[in-house]
Amino acid sequence: MLLNAPTSLFLYPNRRIFSNGCLRVQKTWKQSMCISTKPVIDDRILRISDKDALTAVPENIVVTPSTNASVFLGATSSEKSCRHVFKLGVMELRFLSLFRFNIWWMIPRVGNSGSDVPVETQMLLLEAREEQVVSASNASPSYILFLPVLDGDFRSSLQGNSANELELCVESGDPAIVASQFLNAVFVNYGNSPFDLMKESMKILEKHKGTFSIRETKKMPGMLDWFGWCTWDAFYTEVTPQGIKDGLKSLSDGGTPAKFIIIDDGWQETYNDLQKEEELSPVALQFGSRLISIKVNNKFWKKKNESPNEATNDLKDFVIEIRRDFGLKYVYVWHALMGYWGGVHTDAPETKKYNSQLRYPLQSQGNLANMRDFAMDCMEKYGVDTIDPSKISEFYDDLHKYLASQDVDGVKVDVQNILETLGTGLGGRVSLTKQFQQALEKSIAANFQDNSIICCMGQNTDSIYNCKRSAITRASDDYQPRNQTSQTTHVAAVAFNSIFLGEIVVPDWDMFYSRHYAAEFHAVARAVGGCGIYVSDKPGQHDFTVLKRLVLPDGSVLRAKYPGRPSRDCLFNDPVMDGKSLLKIWNLNKFSGVLGIFNCQGAGSWPGLHSNVENSTCSELSGRVSPADIEYFEEISGETWTGDCAIFLFNSGSLVRLPKEGYLDVSLGVLQCDVFTISPIMFGVTPKGTFGWPLLGETLSFLRPHSSNSLGTFLQDHCSRYGKVFKSHLFCSPTIVSCDQELNYFILQNEDRLFQCSYPKPIHGVLGKSSMLVVVGDTHKRLRSVALSLVSTTKSKPDYLNDIEGTAIQILHSWRGKQQVIFCDEARKFTFNVIIKQVLGLTPDEPQTTKILEDFLTFMRGLISFPLYIPGTPYARAVQARTRISSTIKAIFEERKRNRGYSKRKSDFLEILLSVNNLSEDEKVSFVLDSLLGGYETTSLLMALAVQFLGQSPAALQQLKLEHRSIRSFKQRDEYLNWEDYKKMEFTQNVISEALRCGNIVKFVHRKALKDVRFKDYLIPSGWKILPVFSAVHLDPSLHGSTLEFHPWRWEKQSQTSKKFTPFGGGPRFCPGSELAKVETAFFLHHLVLNFRWRTVGVDQHPLAYPYVEFQSGLPLRVDPIL
């Protein structure tokens, strides 16, 4: 039995372990994608899959179909305006709203009707239960999603009114930008899983709108996986170089070194004109100040009479110093979207060129209906020196180019929502935000290496739906260590906001203090949050007990896979103020699920709501934790999961076993939390075996030559000792060797899902990185699709069949007068002439053919040589030969392109290949080389095996002659064979199949496990190589009776495409040219058996497997023509 190891760092060793937990059963949530029943308005009811989402829908509300089950909801007005509020209809369903409680930040709100929906709602999730079971607590709910989006120059939001009506607000933010029709204002979708529903909806919107990208497609900044420190709450604006060094040193000395730093507000050169006229508080001074230089302020300058050891002369010197002394990997600095809170000074010498203009922000009615914000109040009072939009690209490029020159890696960009208040006269809020966001992301891409930006104070949909590249966004109001009422709301807000934001960005949970009464509460939240982890401790003020549960000794962190979000049973409860609900946040690690549970009640209240007595007096709450709380658990549970889980309880240090449907009771006091690591229990152990010698393992023994119609001593010995599946160490990797037909078939059928092609790197060096034999995933699919198309076009064409037969006749005619031939040489000559004609349109007597053949023979010798790249070795010569072949092929390509309009086609194959647009030139060259390799070596070997085995089986040879005489009897003299003749060669097919079974051209293939795989009682660990040995199945007496006997008649009763016969591989990597090899072999045999008798010469009767198959003497034959 294997238990996947938990990866949460909130673990203690040597805890007590319980064999079983208390078993209780609860409902299992059903995972599903969106349901394909489109919403419609019928009889003034917006009905979605037989559920009434809205009633009394006004006549001016319209539905525009989108994809699958989704639609856009819109409205029309008789008048144009820059702001409209439309009634959508009465809503009486349980809901979760994410709304902006002030201009900068979102929080959740739950309710039961339209009147509860707050102004500035940016996401609305409705719970829809079947009417007949609406009271049943265990009924499976479905979900309806409303996403107000951007519609042209207008931004949408939702709100409710006292009549339980849901309302739509659309606004441009500029009186000059007016409209009366909005057909794509609200996206509506429906599904059984809230998380699938959100994911699929964002994918649809991404494609439809084209203004943003979803998280999973974005480049993730490297700092996410390293522990960090931000200077803000440590110093606020009083940050200094010495303070930074002190903070980094104290963290490093304590064993949790910071590997990235954010130098927050306080490093820039700013000025406030108003401080001359009135006495301003420090905070008001900050929000009214303007940027007067893009360069660092004098706190970082080297001052006169100061020791060189105490100060630096520029930001770059300081950055280099802290990198060197503290091993920092990433240095970020803070700046506001508009340069600084108050903008960029209009008249300062260094900033005048940006043509800033003093503008006074105008908030929307929606913002004014919610809470005021002091920073916004200051900016409204003092105005913002707004950079000319035509200069914003220049400003960002200047700023970021300067920072990059100072060895800074990236930026945290704050105050982003300010643009929605400055749109008047500038094209409106949506257009202005788009312009600034595009300029910002373009500058980040141009000046920094790692998509190095953290967005902040940008939670309006103007910014969110223009987030094309940015991958991290702050997901809540600031962490406020001195505000006791905000500790719980901070955690709850991020978790709920991540439902929406997490599909577009990695939600940033902000910094926290490690030495604080709520430190563990915040630390646990970040452990399950899937976010970057950084603190803002004052120097020397750390709790290393907390930090060492989050941070590894090298400064790295183990980040969970997804954004942490509330479990389904928490979605429509208020975890902060209902006095009864706990908050559960789920996530996945590589091998386990992780669940954080928090008591957020009794320690705070949501902005705009007042606490009640029940909430404030609650001391301890109880809830339930279940493996079923973890979404997407099937991603880690594998296909042989027993259904049980091992649950590690962090607080108690105990281990409990439960079925997925079971649950545990949990009780937590105010501001208490716990972490549960939930691992699927799966039976399976790695197969028996031995790893052999260090480094080499058992590779040399495995590759020891043996007769190709035998297993060889290595496989015989290991199978007898360990069974048909065993472990070893081969090709410098731990390896599972499979001689089992069921496992081999399982491996082949699960290509790119559980297993992946994984040939040794030296093979890549010879074949090239674009070879179809070594590429994986989508690249292989593209190449194989082209191969199948070309084979399908080629195989039955008369020209191709005539070329095969003509070449066979020519080769056999050259035998006249000879007593002996080396058949392998003759077969290779035949196959090369056929394939070079079909692929490149070249005949044997052309100079290019001779050149390619010389290089190709060098290439083939190196392919099977020891992979040592030293000038003069066969391997090195093969790599050089491949380069020369590639150049020749490219020259043929160019010549064909030039002569397309003037010369007759020489090869349909090449014409089709050149017309394929989704392959690069290198891929086309590799494709040609792969075709030459397959058509030359493997086909000639198949022919040699058939001839050798037929020479030892007179009965089979006689029946083959009879079949071909019968076919020839229906043909005119010198009439060529056709496809119908080939289909009549039934016994020939049996001969070919039996030659493949006995000869085993492909002994095994290389694969590796992409994840832990359980098959029957075996575990195949992730990353291990696995070798399905086809020859072992072909020579298994339990599957093929009399395995050492060449007996073509066996194929009259058994399938030539079964699990126990895989000469051409199987699954998505089944050889696309297999039929061509059979056609060439059959046509050659046709003329051989009708025109010659032969017998082998010498004692070398069987080819050897190295593991490639080779006749040591080239299969010499004594030949006699049949007169």
TrEMBL record:
Cellular localization per UniProt: Membrane
Cofactor names: heme
Pathway(s) served: Steroid biosynthesis; Hormone biosynthesis; Plant hormone biosynthesis; brassinosteroid biosynthesis
Catalytic activity from the UniProt record: campesterol + reduced [NADPH--hemoprotein reductase] + O2 = (22S)-22-hydroxycampesterol + oxidized [NADPH--hemoprotein reductase] + H2O + H(+); alpha-D-galactosyl-(1->3)-1D-myo-inositol + sucrose = raffinose + myo-inositol
Class of the enzyme per the UniProt entry, highest EC level: transferase
Coiled-coil region: none
Residues engaged in binding heme: C1071
One MF term in the entry's GO annotations: monooxygenase activity
Protein name as annotated: Cytochrome P450 724B1
Protein's organism: Protea cynaroides
Organism taxonomic ancestry: Eukaryota, Viridiplantae, Streptophyta, Embryophyta, Tracheophyta
